[in-house]
């Protein structure tokens, strides 16, 4: 194969150290809600700006309430987006609503922006019978086919090469869409990340790689994650466009993603965005950051709160007020609490949900194990209170209509 | 009908699938213009274009990750891993992602459109890293289907069925047979059922279960046994997961004896799973302990490959031991 690389020749062993790749940070909005000198705000009308802000605020409210619920023992596990709302909502808002999002796990704000209802959030977290994931994954593993949000998977970084493949499929299907994939700077150390960037540039996939560089991978600080200048310079090695953006600056994230989307959809060439932000909260409800970072460091970042920055901008445009803020926060809190109570009371999925969706149709072995389990539960009903009194509601009948209902490839065999 | 070797049959299956559905795409290392190191994808790029049949970078986790995403989007992805020995960098994408896509999303998303093809097995002087049979690793993972054909006719029909199956399939091709095995293959578009074993020879004294290239060894052993008056029934399992316990049990009810043979090592091999299940179903019908003739519990060797392999003579001896128990 020929390459388009320049073949300059030198006759001295002169090493390059990559310092020339230092990447600046794109910023528009200052913490006081005013623009930097010479900065120009992206076109954002009042309606869209408020849709964005509501999603950010809702995410903060949801995170606060759910962490409290976890501490009260009502929920087994939770992960907060706190501190990264602008990075997530700003990028999602720059997409078309039918572009695909492949998230890592901390991007509930994207779902909130797309219109995932409070009920939908709660049903997943409580794994009740209305959970789309049928109570199979831990809390926060949301997914929505309707909202083009791929169901979360726990193994880190696996969604990154998948995004390249998904985007390639969109291109082949002639869609004028893209896939945006979120991941952290820690996940960017996995082989999957490197595989994905390489596959995507080589095969011209319309994908936006969005790194939330939030400073920590559980307890490992970014300085122990990589020796280089962050994640962004890696794009050069793959011949990919890249931008580093202030992840707490909603306007900058929005503008950068908007332009990235335009580029990937038009030219079928991926873009990497590195959003510099900070995970204000713990990694998860099982983590205690006081063991690895100082309150002082956290406080310094709290002063860069992305929600406050956005709110000040909205107020400067007279699109938002103190009263509206208070009243909306109160409504959201109440909504979250009321919905949580409702979701908690809903029954768990029925016993057949243990066995369905392993394959498109249940196998003979699964049918046999289902019958065996039912017989056992009938014998010891008190030991299996979630299922015992509902055994008659469940069956592994192959002809159930929902088996025909699969969103994408169900027709592979039948086509 | 035309006489074809296994590679030609596989090539025909891919050609047929790509011609029938423009959503089918074939990719992997050297799969494009070159047609793959074994030429299984010859002429496909020429016929269907570089967008549908292409080379990937040398990155197995990337190939399968990409394929997972492509299949979840609704395309039909046929990914080649150049040798089954090199499937392990993609292990996480296969067992944690491919296998669980439908289950973990409550059927909101699935990668049923994915087939992973990989040449597997010994007998080609391939040594350590070009000879392994990794089917048992994947058989432990609910949500995958694992399919292995024994000859060209089976290869075409099973591969077409795999590509069109609503579940993800790992399709292991016995590379020793790629050119060595030939036979009549219909030119038409046909499928053979997944999850169903096939009784390839009827017999009354002992049931031999095998798959892939090992079927030839079972047949040769059965011929030797026949000369000694022992009648063997032979079953090609064809699908390792989910496997057809019913057909095997039915046969063992009749013969009262079972021998399972595979190239992979003994310990943790799939023969153990078959033996456990069959003794559960057929305990009172068994005339002798279930026998396993397999590769050794060593890595696959180069020079002493013949000694390592479970061949027709080892199977023949095990048949006699079982019948004379």
Automatic annotation (TrEMBL), chain A:
Q: What is this protein called?
A: 2-oxoisovalerate dehydrogenase subunit alpha
Report the leader peptide range.
none
So what EC number does this one have?
1.2.4.4
Q: Which reaction does it catalyse?
A: N(6)-[(R)-lipoyl]-L-lysyl-[protein] + 3-methyl-2-oxobutanoate + H(+) = N(6)-[(R)-S(8)-2-methylpropanoyldihydrolipoyl]-L-lysyl-[protein] + CO2
Q: What family classification does the UniProt entry report for this protein?
A: Belongs to the BCKDHA family.
User: Which parts of the sequence belong to the Dehydrogenase E1 component domain?
Assistant: 53-350
Alphabetically sorted, this entry's keywords are: Oxidoreductase, Thiamine pyrophosphate
The residue ranges flagged as biased composition, category Basic and acidic residues, are 387-403
TrEMBL record, chain B:
The role this protein plays is: The branched-chain alpha-keto dehydrogenase complex catalyzes the overall conversion of alpha-keto acids to acyl-CoA and CO(2). It contains multiple copies of three enzymatic components: branched-chain alpha-keto acid decarboxylase (E1), lipoamide acyltransferase (E2) and lipoamide dehydrogenase (E3).
Q: What is this protein called?
A: 2-oxoisovalerate dehydrogenase subunit beta
Arranged from A to Z, the UniProt key words for this protein are:
Oxidoreductase, Thiamine pyrophosphate
E.C. designation(s)? 1.2.4.4
Cofactor(s) in the UniProt record = thiamine diphosphate
Q: Which GO terms describe its molecular function?
A: branched-chain 2-oxo acid dehydrogenase activity
Q: What sections of the protein cross the membrane?
A: none
Which organism does this sequence originate in? Pistricoccus aurantiacus
Checking Pfam families in the record gives: Transket_pyr (PF02779), Transketolase_C (PF02780)
Under CDD domains, the record lists:
TPP_PYR_E1-PDHc-beta_like
A GO BP entry: branched-chain amino acid catabolic process
| Top-level enzyme category | oxidoreductase
| InterPro entries hit by this protein | THDP-binding (IPR029061), Transketo_C/PFOR_II (IPR009014), Transketolase-like_Pyr-bd (IPR005475), Transketolase_C (IPR033248)
Task: Tell me which residues make up the Transketolase-like pyrimidine-binding domain.
Answer: 4-180
């Amino acid at each position: 194969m020929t390459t388009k690389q320049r073949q300059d020749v030198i006759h001295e062993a002169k090493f390059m150290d990559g310092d020339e790749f230092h990447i600046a940070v794109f910023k528009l909005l200052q913490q006081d809600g005013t623009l930097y000198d010479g900065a120009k705000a992206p076109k954002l009308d009042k309606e869209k700006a408020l849709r964005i802000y509501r999603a950010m605020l809702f995410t903060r409210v949801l995170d606060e309430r759910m962490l409290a619920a976890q501490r009260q023992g009502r929920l087994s596990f939770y992960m907060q987006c706190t501190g990264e709302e602008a990075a997530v909502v700003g990028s999602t808002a720059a997409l078309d609503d039918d572009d695909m999002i492949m998230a890592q796990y901390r991007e509930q704000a994207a779902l909130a922006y797309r219109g995932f209802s409070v009920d939908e959030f709660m049903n997943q977290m409580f794994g009740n019978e209305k959970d789309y994931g049928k109570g199979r994954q831990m809390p926060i593993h949301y997914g929505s086919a309707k909202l083009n949000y791929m169901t979360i998977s726990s193994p880190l970084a696996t969604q990154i090469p998948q995004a390249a493949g998904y985007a390639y499929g969109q291109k082949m299907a002639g869609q004028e869409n893209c896939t945006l994939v979120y991941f952290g700077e820690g996940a960017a150390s996995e082989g999957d990340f490197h595989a994905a960037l390489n596959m995507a540039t080589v095969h011209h996939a319309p994908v936006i790689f969005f790194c939330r560089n939030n400073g920590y991978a559980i307890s490992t600080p970014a300085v122990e994650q990589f020796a280089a200048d962050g994640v962004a310079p890696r794009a050069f090695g793959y011949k990919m466009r890249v931008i580093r953006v202030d992840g707490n600056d909603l306007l900058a994230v929005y503008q950068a993603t908007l332009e990235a989307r335009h580029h990937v959809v038009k030219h079928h060439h991926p873009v990497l965005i590195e959003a510099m932000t900070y995970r204000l909260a713990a990694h998860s409800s099982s983590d205690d950051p006081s063991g690895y970072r100082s309150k002082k460091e956290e406080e310094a970042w709290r002063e860069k709160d992305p929600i406050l920055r956005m709110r000040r901008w909205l107020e400067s445009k007279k699109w938002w007020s103190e009263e509206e803020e208070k009243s909306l926060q109160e409504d959201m809190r109440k909504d979250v609490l009321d919905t949580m109570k409702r979701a908690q009371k809903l029954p768990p999925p029925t016993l057949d949900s243990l066995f369905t969706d392993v394959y498109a149709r249940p196998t003979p072995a699964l049918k046999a194990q289902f019958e065996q389990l039912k017989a056992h539960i009938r014998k010891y009903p008190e030991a299996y209170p979630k299922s015992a009194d509902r055994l008659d509601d469940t069956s592994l009948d192959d002809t159930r209509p929902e088996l025909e209902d699969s969103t994408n490839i169900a027709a592979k065999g039948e086509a | 009908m035309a006489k074809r070797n296994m590679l030609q049959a596989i090539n025909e299956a891919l050609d047929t699938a790509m011609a029938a559905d423009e959503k089918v795409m074939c990719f992997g290392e050297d799969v494009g213009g070159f047609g793959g190191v074994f030429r299984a994808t010859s002429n496909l790029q020429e016929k269907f274009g570089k967008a549908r049949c292409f080379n990937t970078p040398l990155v197995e986790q990337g190939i399968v990750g990409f394929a997972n995403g492509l299949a979840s989007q609704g395309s039909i992805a046929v990914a080649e891993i150049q040798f089954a020995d090199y499937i392990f960098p993609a292990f996480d994408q296969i067992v944690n992602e491919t296998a669980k896509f439908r289950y973990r999303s409550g059927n909101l998303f699935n990668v049923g459109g994915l087939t992973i093809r990989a040449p597997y097995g010994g007998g080609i002087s391939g040594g350590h890293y070009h000879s392994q049979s990794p089917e048992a690793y994947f058989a432990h993972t609910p949500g995958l289907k694992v399919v292995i054909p024994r000859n060209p006719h089976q290869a075409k029909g099973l591969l077409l069925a795999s590509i069109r199956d609503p579940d993800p399939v790992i399709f292991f091709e016995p590379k020793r047979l790629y050119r060595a095995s030939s036979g009549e293959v219909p030119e038409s578009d046909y499928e053979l059922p997944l999850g169903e074993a096939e009784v390839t020879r009827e017999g009354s004294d002992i049931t031999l279960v095998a798959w892939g290239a090992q079927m030839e060894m079972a047949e040769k052993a059965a011929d030797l046994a026949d000369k000694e008056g022992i009648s063997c029934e032979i079953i090609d399992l064809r699908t390792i997961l989910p496997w057809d316990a019913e057909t095997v049990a039915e046969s063992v009810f009749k013969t009262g004896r079972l021998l399972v043979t595979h190239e992979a090592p003994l310990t943790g091999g799939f023969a153990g799973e078959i033996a456990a299940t069959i003794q559960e179903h057929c305990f009172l019908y068994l005339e002798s302990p279930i026998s396993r003739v397999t590769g050794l519990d060593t890595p696959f060797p180069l020079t002493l490959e013949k000694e390592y392999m479970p061949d027709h003579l080892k199977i023949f001896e095990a048949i006699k031991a079982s019948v004379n128990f």
